[in-house]
């Protein structure tokens, strides 16, 4: 199981955030996030948003540190990249309720 995380450089809600992704499957990603105690609501389309204070937890659990560009490249290469509003072809994909 290999998961990837970019540095916490994405601002939002008064914090900095990282993106946690898999290059294999969403099932692998969900299992890893669950093992960290990350709530499913932190999943957005193709990644989990992790606040900066959880970055070292993910790395300690085995996530590999990569650049933000590498996160996108890995998602595209695995066929797991989903843009906003694109839920077609994604196994188990469900639109987020508002």
Explained architecture:
By secondary structure, the protein is an alpha+beta fold. The protein has 3 helices and 6 strands; from the N terminus they run βββαββαβα. It has helices at residues 26-36, 55-60, 68-78; strands at 3-5, 10-12, 15-22, 43-44, 47-51, 64-65. Strands 1, 2, 3, 4, 5 and 6 form a 6-stranded mixed beta sheet that branches. Strand 2 and strand 3 form a beta hairpin. The radius of gyration is 13 Å and the shape is globular. This is DUF4031 domain-containing protein. It holds the Pfam family DUF4031. Residues 4-76 form the DUF4031 domain.
In short:
It is built from 3 helices and 6 strands; from the N terminus they run βββαββαβα. It is α+β, with helices and mostly antiparallel strands and 98 residues long. The chain has helices spanning 26-36, 55-60, 68-78; strands spanning 3-5, 10-12, 15-22, 43-44, 47-51, 64-65.
Helices and strands, in order, run as EEEHEEHEH
Taking the alpha carbons of the first and last residues, their distance comes to 32 Å
Rg from alpha-carbon coordinates:
13 Å
Shape: globular
Q: Major sheet: size, sense and barrel closure?
A: 6 strands, mixed
Q: List unreliable stretches of 5+ residues.
A: 88-98
- Arithmetic mean of pLDDT: 86
The total beta strand count reads 6
Protein name: DUF4031 domain-containing protein
InterPro entries: DUF4031
Domain DUF4031: 4-76
């Amino acid at each position: 199981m290999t998961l990837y995380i970019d540095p916490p450089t994405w601002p939002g809600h008064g914090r900095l955030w990282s993106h946690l992704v898999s290059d294999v499957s969403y099932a692998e990603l969900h299992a890893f996030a669950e093992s960290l105690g990350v709530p499913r609501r932190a999943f957005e389309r193709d990644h989990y948003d992790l606040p900066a204070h959880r970055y070292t937890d993910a790395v300690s659990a085995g996530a590999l540190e990569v650049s933000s560009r590498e996160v996108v490249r890995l998602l595209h290469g695995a066929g797991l990249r989903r843009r906003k509003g694109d839920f077609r072809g994604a196994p188990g994909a469900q639109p987020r309720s508002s």
